[in-house]
């Protein structure tokens, strides 16, 4: 029997902790002038006209959901992605004019998929041999529909952006939640499995060479895609990018040492360059990148010009097969008799993210990834201590809570006047998510840091409502977006980072002044918030209704689809007398207990 008094004692202890946290900050006057940016609406309107131009456009919000059911030793996964569009007009003075009554579901950019597979293939699909208990099995089962759902979301986002009228896409996930893990998965596919299904079986006969995969992962669609720096962890990447750029600019695969060496950020001898190149060629490419060393230079593979073409060719076929968009009615998770792994699916998602960034870099379009329940600790761990050390802020030694979101919730509630809605935090580089401020200097929290000048992060809060005796604020959310050189370069600064016992300078984005681009985004977020629906107030209306729709889609068919799957197999089960073999022990025992009742 459970102990009521012990439960009460536990709750009282939590109350004491919460009370102490509030008492700690009641008299605390935070210096937030530098890190909190209230909306400058006039400036935002000017930025809107300057960036998009006045006219009629569309915004798209999309969300995904997934679920699975295990029965008769078959796992049935359910994937739903819903896309909704909303027409809006930007007037000549920059006002956003819209009506939420005009929201429409885009069927061509929505996905619903039901996929069955044998439970016995779970190890192959998850690329794991350690599914030993319920916890690891549950995690493995979650990972499969989650990978497919995420791929569906990014694919729908890309297809939306191809529409000339669509200028804004809202994602119901931070982009950073995908890019790091998926790059790790891509490296495993390449270096642990030699390119996996892409180099062995191919997709419908279309293969990608290993060197094309490597170049695509490290360079993106073109050699200027990433911002590699000559620092620990990315020196070889920097040289690869430099060599690729030289080959692209000259349209010649022959690279002269006399032209390469002056472009390096440090003085280095020719012999040292040869050693570094040879190491790069062996470690990254297995000797496939540099085809020959000559007296005055070296020759790189001509795949440097065409590697992304092979990615494009397979990408569409892969997605068509997975979502039955090209009339492929074979099993979407099996190629050449073996199951796809989640890492291979995530690798395709990575390439879709690359395509999205490449597209918006060349067009005046905007992708905003919104996170709801984050436990990010960037502010307290690295950003605020750094800003304090540089004299930008003072009196901000906030240790009452660890997570940034909780910190902003408490401070904005106790100091309303310092957080006028709508507000957002200072924009900062995603590299801060992998840094910690220690002993007076920024240092990698682990061995390496993420790349700078790729993703920019902000927190924001949109609404406040006055009740009879209190003010109630909408939740605090988090958004990230891609770095844009034309909008963000003026806010890039050199920052000293310590790696082991050496210091290096990294050039990162930090909003030391007002960025008109993020001020414009805050204005956009406030306009696409529907305050007439209480549960969506302060969020994003398009994402709210997309979330409702995907949950409805799965709930509507889950039971009936599961029954179809089970009924289809019962004949084979009875014929071969393998009823018990197709049941897990718990499922079999539960069935017997139901009969007994």
What is shown here, in short?
This protein is an alpha+beta fold and 597 residues long.
User: Helix/strand/pairing class, anyone?
Assistant: alpha+beta
Q: Write down the Rg.
A: 27 Å
Biggest sheet features? 12 strands, mixed
Q: Which consecutive residue ranges, at least 5 long each, have pLDDT under 50?
A: none
Description:
- Helix content is 43%, strand content 21%.
- Strands 1, 2, 3, 4, 5, 6, 7, 13, 14, 15, 18 and 21 form a twelve-stranded mixed beta sheet that branches. A three-stranded antiparallel beta sheet has the order 8-10-9.
- It is globular and about 80 Å long.
- It is of the alpha+beta class and 597 residues long.
- Helix 2 packs across helix 15, helix 5 crosses helix 11 (342-361) and helix 6 crosses helix 10 (307-323).
- The chain contains 17 helices and 23 strands.
- Among the domains are: 216-307; 391-538, no CATH class.
Task: Supply the key terms.
3-stranded antiparallel beta sheet; 597 residues; alpha+beta; 43% helix; single chain; 21% strand; 12-stranded mixed beta sheet; globular
Question: How would you summarize the topology of this molecule?
Answer:
Blueprint: H1 4-26, E1 36-38, H2 41-51, E2 55-71, E3 74-90, E4 96-97, E5 104-105, E6 111-118, H3 122-126, H4 134-162, E7 166-171, H5 176-191, H6 210-219, H7 235-250, E8 254-256, H8 257-260, H9 270-285, E9 290-293, E10 297-300, H10 307-323, E11 334-335, E12 338-339, H11 342-361, E13 366-371, H12 378-389, H13 404-414, E14 423-425, E15 428-429, E16 435-438, E17 441-444, E18 455-461, E19 464-466, E20 471-473, E21 477-482, H14 485-488, E22 492-499, E23 502-509, H15 516-527, H16 541-576, H17 585-596
Parallel strand pairs: 2-7, 7-13
Antiparallel strand pairs: 1-14, 2-3, 3-4, 3-5, 3-6, 8-10, 9-10, 11-12, 13-21, 14-18, 15-18, 16-17, 18-21, 19-20, 22-23
Helix pairs in contact: 2-15, 4-11, 5-6, 5-11, 6-10
């Amino acid at each position: 029997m459970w102990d009521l008094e012990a439960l009460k004692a536990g709750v009282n202890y939590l109350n004491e902790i919460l009370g102490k946290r509030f008492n700690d900050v009641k008299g605390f006057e935070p210096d937030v002038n530098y890190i909190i940016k209230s909306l400058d609406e006039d400036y935002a309107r000017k930025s809107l006209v300057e960036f998009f131009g006045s006219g009629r456009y569309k915004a798209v919000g999309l969300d995904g959901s997934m679920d699975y059911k295990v029965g008769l030793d078959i796992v049935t996964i359910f994937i739903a992605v819903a896309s909704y569009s909303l027409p809006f007009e930007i007037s000549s003075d920059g006002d956003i004019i819209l009506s939420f009554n005009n929201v429409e579901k885009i069927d061509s950019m929505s996905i619903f998929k039901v996929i069955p597979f044998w439970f016995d293939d779970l190890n192959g699909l998850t690329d794991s041999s350690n599914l030993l208990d319920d916890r690891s099995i549950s995690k493995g089962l979650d990972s499969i529909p989650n990978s497919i759902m995420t791929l569906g979301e990014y694919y729908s986002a890309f297809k939306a952006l191809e529409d000339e009228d669509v200028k804004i896409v809202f994602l119901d996930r931070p982009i950073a939640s995908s890019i790091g893990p998926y790059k790790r998965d891509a490296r495993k596919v390449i270096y642990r499995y030699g390119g996996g299904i892409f180099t062995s079986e191919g997709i419908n006969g279309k293969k990608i060479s290993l060197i094309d995969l490597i170049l695509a992962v490290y360079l993106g669609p073109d050699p200027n895609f990433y911002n590699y720096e000559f620092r620990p962890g990315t020196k070889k990447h920097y040289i690869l990018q430099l060599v690729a750029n030289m080959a692209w600019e000259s349209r010649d695969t022959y690279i002269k040492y006399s032209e390469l060496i002056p472009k390096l950020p440090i003085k280095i001898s020719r012999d040292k360059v040869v050693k570094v190149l040879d190491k790069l060629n062996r470690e990254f490419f297995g000797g496939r990148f540099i085809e020959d060393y000559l007296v005055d230079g070296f020759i790189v593979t001509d795949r440097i010009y065409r590697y992304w073409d092979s990615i494009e060719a397979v990408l569409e076929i892969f997605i068509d097969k997975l979502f039955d968009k090209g009339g492929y009615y074979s099993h979407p998770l099996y190629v050449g008799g073996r199951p796809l792994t989640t890492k291979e699916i995530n690798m395709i998602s990575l390439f879709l993210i690359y395509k999205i960034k490449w597209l918006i870099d060349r067009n005046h379009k905007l992708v905003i990834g919104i996170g709801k329940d984050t436990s990010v600790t960037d502010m307290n761990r690295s950003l605020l201590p750094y800003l304090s050390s540089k004299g930008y802020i003072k009196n901000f030694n906030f240790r009452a809570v660890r997570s940034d979101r909780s910190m902003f919730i408490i401070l904005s509630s106790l100091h309303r006047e310092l957080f006028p809605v709508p507000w957002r935090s200072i924009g900062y580089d995603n590299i801060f998510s992998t840094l910690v401020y220690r002993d007076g200097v920024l240092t990698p929290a682990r061995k390496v840091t993420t790349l700078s000048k790729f993703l920019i992060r902000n927190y924001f809060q949109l609404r406040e409502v006055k009740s009879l005796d209190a003010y109630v604020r909408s939740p605090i959310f988090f958004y990230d977006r891609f770095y844009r050189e034309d909008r963000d370069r003026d806010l890039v600064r050199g920052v000293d980072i310590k790696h082991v016992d050496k210091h290096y300078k990294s050039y990162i984005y930090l909003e030391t002044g007002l960025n008109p681009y993020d001020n414009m985004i805050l204005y956009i977020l406030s306009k696409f918030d529907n305050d007439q629906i209480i549960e969506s107030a302060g969020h994003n209306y398009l994402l709210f209704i997309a979330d409702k729709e995907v949950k409805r889609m799965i709930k509507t068919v889950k039971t009936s689809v599961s029954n179809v799957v089970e009924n289809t197999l019962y004949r084979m089960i009875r014929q071969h007398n393998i009823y018990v073999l197709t049941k897990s022990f718990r499922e079999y025992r539960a069935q017997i207990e139901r009969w007994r009742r």
